[in-house]
Design a protein that fits this description.
By secondary structure, the chain is mainly beta. It has one helix and five strands; from the N terminus they run E-E-E-E-H-E.
Length: 69
């Protein structure tokens, strides 16, 4: 799944070995974002909540974290 974070960048979230893992995406790049951690057993429908909290410093009025793919 790919999420747009406040219109600034995209984060891909994948399940690996039973845990959610975040990757920062950009033109020609994909790298692990170790600053984002998901609680074990987190339901898929709550991933955006964690990303919203993780990147709250980037929040702007009218922009949010939303799933794009």
């Amino acid at each position: 799944m790919v999420f747009e974070v406040y219109g600034r960048f995209e984060v891909e979230v994948c399940e690996e070995s039973g845990a959610w893992v975040a990757y920062r995406l950009g033109p020609g790049m994909r790298h692990r974002d170790y600053d984002v951690s998901f609680p074990r057993g987190l339901a898929e429908d709550r991933l955006a909540e964690v990303l919203t909290h993780s990147f709250q410093d980037l929040a702007s009025p009218g922009l949010n974290v939303r799933r794009v793919r």
